[in-house]
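User: Show me a protein chain along with its predicted structure.
Assistant: Here is one chain, sequence first, then structure tokens.
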Amino acid sequence: MAESEQRVKSERAFFLDRDGVLVEDVDLLTDASQIRVLPGVVEALQAIHEHGYLSVVITNQTVIARGLIDETELGRLHDHLREQLVQSGAPHVSAFYVCPHHPHADVARYRVECTCRKPSPGLLERASDEMGIDLAMSFMIGDRLSDVAAGQRAGCTTALIESGAHRAPPIVGMSSEPPTPDHRFADLREAVHTLLRGQR
């Protein structure tokens, strides 16, 4: 086996959903003017960085599948979000991983049954391979049960942010009983600080 294939995965990460966790969920975010960072996010990202974890955003983006924006425009939105966070005192987000697909996409090339759309764990597994992340030592935090399912399938500890918006969402790709998160929190700041205390 090649040396590169024997790479030890020693990094730890907080995998974070974007909408409803980092920024206000506006349903279809297509313009930078819609980006509103939620309270406590900067402090949470600071704590993640200070404790030696990576911060990796894992997000389904049906705005691409619907043809509302393209992948380049989404990249610009994420650059704007990164800049806004840094200007507020947060460290750089380590990476963004995006699924642009949907089984009923308006744009034909995105109309596929993929392995990267949450609740599938494909994006987390890709990040693990590319960034050397130990999934068993990492966390997945989201405000939908599809986030929880993806984290559990990847082998992460999971936390559900109970904002009230997505208590019982429909999950495309789930045929079994809805998953039960390992933890429940009111917001990202509470989640990160509580989970980090448990690692001491």
